[in-house]
Amino acid sequence: MVGYTYIVANKPYGTLYVGVTSDIVRRVYQHRTGAGSRFTSKYGVAQLVWFEEYTSISDAILREKQLKPWRRDWKIELIEAENPHWCDLYPAIARP
């Protein structure tokens, strides 16, 4: 089963949330509608700013566990390496 590790934010350089899922479109939709988690709902964290795809969910979980304890500035560097303008990536992946 494919897996994804992702980061959602409420704005550029704002609150960040690192997560893992087997269905990134569904999971980010949940964050956007307030059903993702208490944390993301409380802080309005719903913009997909970074993600990686893995061939297995277990690999995605390992990557999530690696990223969660990272310092904030390292996470920002990771985002900006691929998404320097902090564009919301969800519209591009949500299209049929």
| Main sheet properties | 3 strands, antiparallel
- Helix segment tally: 5
Number of domains: 1
Low-confidence segments, ≥5 residues, pLDDT <50?
none
User: What are the secondary-structure elements, in order, as H or E?
Assistant: EEHHEHHH
Short summary:
The chain has helices at 24-32, 38-43, 57-67, 72-82, 90-94; strands spanning 3-9, 16-21, 47-54. It is an alpha+beta fold and 96 residues long.
What does this molecule look like?
By secondary structure, this protein is of the alpha+beta class. The protein has a single domain, classed as 3-Layer(aba) Sandwich (GIY-YIG endonuclease). It is 44% helix and 22% strand. The protein contains 5 helices and 3 strands; from the N terminus they run ββααβααα. A hairpin with a 6-residue loop joins β1 (3-9) and β2 (16-21).
Question: Any descriptors?
Answer:
96 residues; GIY-YIG endonuclease
Secondary structure layout:
Layout: E1 3-9, E2 16-21, H1 24-32, H2 38-43, E3 47-54, H3 57-67, H4 72-82, H5 90-94
Antiparallel strand pairs: 1-2, 1-3
